[in-house]
C-alpha cells in the first residue's frame, strides 16, 4: 500500500528517498538513508529493521544486488516485503516478495530505484522513474518530489493516501532534509508545501550546525 523512489545526485553526492502510503506515519518506518552510503526503502508488511541492516552492508562494500540475494536466502519473511536500494556509486536493486498479491512493480532507473504495491496500475512506477530521470538539473529533493507527484498523477495507490515523507542526506551525519506528513487527506500536497517552505533555509540549517559563527540570521 505504498509507492516510493530512492535516488542519488551524481553532481552533489546527495542521497535520499520519498515515500507515500495509505497508512499513517510512513516516514518513521519505510525510508532510510546515510550520507556517502546509500538510500533504502522497505515496504509492504514493512520491517523497519531492514533499512539499517542494508545500509550497514552497503557501508562495508556489498552491492545492492548481493545484499538482497543474501536476504532472500536468510530471511523467510522477505517474501512479504518490497525493497528498493540505491548505493552512493549509483548501483541499484529492487525486490518484490512472492507473497505480495496486489498490483506491484519495482524498477531500477538511472541513479534511482522505485517500488510500489497496491497500485492502480504499474505505470505509477514507470512515471516516477521517468520523471526523476528527466529532471537532472534540479536538486535531489526537488527531483524526488516531482517523481512521487508524477507517480500519483499516473494513478497512485488504490487506497486513499494518508502520509508521506521526504528524506535526503548530504555530507553530514544528520539529514539535509527530513520532512514528514503523518496524517492528512492530501499528504503529497502538504509535503510539497513543507518542502517549498524548507528549501530556502536548508543550507543555512547545515551552516548553523557545523559552522555557527558563519550562520546568518538573528542569534
SSE topology sketch:
Layout lengths: L1 E7 L6 E7 L9 E4 L3 E6 L6 H10 L4 H11 L7 E6 L4 E5 L7 E6 L2 E6 L5 H12 L5 H14 L9 E7 L7 E5 L5 H12 L3 H9 L9
Antiparallel strand pairs: 1-2, 1-8, 2-9, 3-4, 4-5, 5-6, 7-8, 9-10
Plain-language structure description:
The model has no long low-confidence stretch (mean pLDDT 97). Helix 3 runs antiparallel to helix 4 (140-153) and helix 4 (140-153) packs antiparallel against helix 5. The protein has 6 helices and 10 strands; from the N terminus they run E-E-E-E-H-H-E-E-E-E-H-H-E-E-H-H. The protein has helices at residues 50-59, 64-74, 123-134, 140-153, 187-198, 202-210, and strands spanning 2-8, 15-21, 31-34, 38-43, 82-87, 92-96, 104-109, 112-117, 163-169, 177-181. Strand 1 (2-8) and strand 2 (15-21) form a beta hairpin. The chain is an alpha+beta fold and 219 residues long. It has a single domain (2-214), classed as Aminohydrolase, N-terminal nucleophile (Ntn) domain (Glutamine Phosphoribosylpyrophosphate, subunit 1, domain 1), CATH 3.60.20. The strands form 2 sheets. The chain has a 6-stranded antiparallel β-sheet with strand order 7-8-1-2-9-10, covered by helices on one side. A 4-stranded antiparallel β-sheet has the order 3-4-5-6, covered by helices on one side.
Amino acid at each position: 500500500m505504498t509507492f516510493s523512489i530512492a535516488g542519488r545526485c551524481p553532481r552533489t553526492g546527495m542521497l535520499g528517498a520519498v515515500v507515500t502510503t495509505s497508512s499513517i506515519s510512513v516516514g518513521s518506518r519505510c525510508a532510510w538513508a546515510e550520507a556517502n552510503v546509500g538510500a533504502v526503502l522497505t515496504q509492504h508488511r514493512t520491517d523497519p529493521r531492514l533499512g539499517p541492516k542494508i545500509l550497514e552492508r552497503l557501508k562495508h562494500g556489498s552491492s545492492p544486488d548481493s545484499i538482497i540475494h543474501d536476504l532472500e536466502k536468510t530471511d523467510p519473511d522477505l517474501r512479504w516485503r518490497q525493497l528498493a536500494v540505491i548505493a552512493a556509486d549509483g548501483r541499484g536493486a529492487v525486490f518484490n516478495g512472492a507473497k505480495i498479491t496486489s498490483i506491484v512493480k519495482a524498477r531500477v532507473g538511472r541513479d534511482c530505484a522505485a517500488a510500489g504495491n497496491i497500485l492502480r496500475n504499474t505505470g505509477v512506477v514507470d512515471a516516477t522513474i521517468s520523471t526523476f530521470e528527466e529532471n537532472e538539473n534540479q536538486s535531489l529533493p526537488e527531483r524526488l518530489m516531482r517523481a512521487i507527484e508524477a507517480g500519483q498523477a499516473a494513478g497512485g495507490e488504490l487506497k486513499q493516501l494518508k502520509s508521506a515523507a521526504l528524506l535526503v542526506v548530504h555530507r553530514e551525519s544528520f539529514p539535509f532534509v527530513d520532512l514528514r506528513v503523518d496524517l492528512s487527506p492530501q499528504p503529497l500536497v502538504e509535503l510539497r508545501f513543507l518542502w517549498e517552505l524548507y528549501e530556502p533555509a536548508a543550507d543555512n540549517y547545515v551552516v548553523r550546525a557545523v559552522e555557527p559563527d558563519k550562520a546568518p540570521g538573528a542569534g
